[in-house]
Amino acid sequence: MQLRYTYRFYPDRGQRAALARLFGCVRVVFNDALARQKPLKASNKLLGSPKKRVAEGPYQRVPKNPDLSRELITRAKQTPEREWLGQVSAVPLQQVLRDLDKAWAAHEDSKTGKRQGPKVGAPRFKSRRDRTQSARFTANARWKITDAGKLSLPRIGEVKVNWSRELPSAPSSVTVIKDAADRYFASFVVETNASEVLPETTPEVGIDLGLSHFAVLSDGTKVANPRFLRRAERKLKKAQRALSRKTKGSNNRNKARLKVARVHMRVADARKDFHHQLSTTIIRENQAVYVEDLCVKGLGRSRLAKSVHDAGWSAFVHMLEYKATRYGRFFAKVDRFLASSQTCSQCWAVDGPKPLHVRQWTCTACETLHDRDVNASRIVLAAGRADRENACGGTVRPAA
Ligand SMILES: [Zn+2]
Predict the structure, then answer these.
(1) Which residues, in sequence order, are CB contacts of 139 under 8 Å at separation 6+?
(2) For the segment 48-62, what is each residue's pLDDT rounded down to a tens digit?
(3) Ligand 1: distance of its center to the CA of 100 in Å?
(4) Which residues form the Transposase putative helix-turn-helix domain (predicted)?
(5) Burial, 80: exposed, middle or buried (Cβ in 10 Å; 0-12, 13-18, 19+)?
(6) Measured in angstroms, how far is the CA atom of residue 381 from the centroid of ligand 1?
(7) Could you tell me which residues come within 8 angstroms of residue 83 by beta carbon, excluding any fewer than 6 positions away?
(8) Which is nearest to 395 in space by CA: 363, 333, 353, 348?
(9) Residue 95: helix, strand or coil by DSSP?
C-alpha cells in the first residue's frame, strides 16, 4: 500500500526565498487555470483577495491539460507578465494543473453521487494568505536524496532534513509544504512492502470511543482523554488576544499570528502522537479490531463540538484502518445504530435507554453488573465478529 512519510526540513535563507518563489508560481498557474475554467463575474474581477471572487455560470473544463499546460506554462514564460515562471522547476507547475483536474473530477463525482462521503465543493482560488502552501515534485523532476542525506530539489538546492524515521523504500514523489507556523516539511509517497505483516495473534478487540474516556476497550482497558486543546486553551486565548490588538498588515501582527499558529501546531502534534501510539499498540496486540462507526459530523455540530474535535476520532479511526491493512490485521466499523448502552453484552437483553450519568447498571435478565463503556465496547466486538462471520456465511448477529 502507499503511505506518506513526512519529515521536517530546514532551508537556509536563500532556499526559503526560492521556495517562496516556487509556491508563488504554483499558485499563479493554478489560479490562471481556474480562471480559465471558471468564468468570473465581471464586477468581482477587481475585488480584493481572489477567494472573494465569485464564479458565474457553468465552468468549462476545457482546454484539457496538455493544451492548458502549453498555454499557461510554456507559452506564458515567454510573456513579460509571466516570464518569472521560468525561474522555477516546471514539474510542480504541471502537477498543480493535474491537481486542479482531480479537484474538478471529485466535485463532479460528488455532485452526481459517484463519490461517497461529504460533499466536495468546486475548486477555489488559492491565496498568498492560505495557511499551508505546497508544491509536488514527481520522479521526472530530478530531485534526489544525496549520499550525505540531504534532499536535493531542482532550482532550490540541497536542504537539511531531519530524518526522524527510516524511509521503508525509495519514494516516488516528494511534496514540499510550508505550514501556518512557518515550518517546512517534505512528504514522500512510498510503497510499503509485505514484509511488514505482523505474525498472527488471537485477541480481538472492540473499541468504544467517547469523551469521558478517549477509548474503552472490550478487555476493560480505559484510555483517558488527553484533551490537548482544552489544556492549551489559556495559552491560546492569550496569543489570540495579542493578535487581535495588532494593526493589520504590520510586522508585529505577523509575529503574533505565528505565535497563535504555533500553539495550534503543538496541540495538533501532541494529538497526532497520542493517536499514533495508541493505534499502533492496539493493532500490534490484536488480530481483529472493531470500532463503532461514529457520526462525527453530527456530533461536530452539537454542543460538544469543541470536545469532539479535540478528541479527533476520525483521524484515529483512519490510523487504525490503514495500520490494520499494513500489518495484516482485520479492521471493521460496525453499525452506529447499535443500542450499545441498552443491550447486555452477556445475554443480549435490551434494557431500555439510560441517561448519560448512569455509569454502571445491572442487567435485569441475567443480573450481570456492567460498566457502561466496557459493555458498549463488548457489544461492538460481538457485533463486529457476528458481521464478519455472517459475511463468511456463518451465524447471524444475535437479535438486539
Ligand atoms: Zn444480561
Answers:
(1) 172, 173
(2) 445 444 444 455 555
(3) 55
(4) 1-38
(5) exposed
(6) 16
(7) 77
(8) 348
(9) helix
Radius of gyration of the chain (CA): 25
Let me know: does 78 contact 85? Beta carbons within 8 Å.
Answer: no
Of the candidates 392, 395, 374, 385, which has an alpha carbon nearest to the alpha carbon of residue 202?
385
3-class secondary structure, 165: coil
Residue 196 CA to ligand 1 center (angstroms) comes to 41
Write down the H helix ranges in the chain.
13-37, 65-69, 90-112, 228-245, 251-285, 296-300, 305-311, 313-327, 372-391
* DSSP code at position 350: B
Distance 282 CA to ligand 1 centre (A): 28
Q: Are 38 and 45 in contact (CB under 8 A)?
A: no
Helix (H, G, I), strand (E, B) or coil at 29: helix
Q: What distance in angstroms lies between residue 390's CA and the mean position of ligand 1's atoms? A: 23
Active site residue ranges: 208, 292, 373
Question: DSSP states of 102-115 as a string?
Answer: HHHHHHHHHHHT-S
Q: What is the pLDDT of residues 239-258, one digit of tens each?
A: 999 999 999 989 999 999 99
C-alpha 11/C-alpha 19 separation (Å) is 9
Judge contact between 60 and 37, C-beta under 8 A.
yes
Q: Could you give the CA distance from residue 351 to residue 347 in angstroms, rounded to a whole number?
A: 11
Instruction: Encode pLDDT of 80-139 as tens digits.
Output: 999 999 999 999 999 999 999 888 888 888 888 888 878 888 888 999 888 899 999 998
Q: Show the beta-strand stretches assigned E in 150-183.
A: 150-153, 157-162, 173-178
Cβ burial of 82 (10 Å; 0-12, 13-18, 19+) is middle
Task: List the beta bridge partners of residue 133.
Answer: 178
Burial of 373 per CB tally in 10 Å (0-12, 13-18, 19+): buried
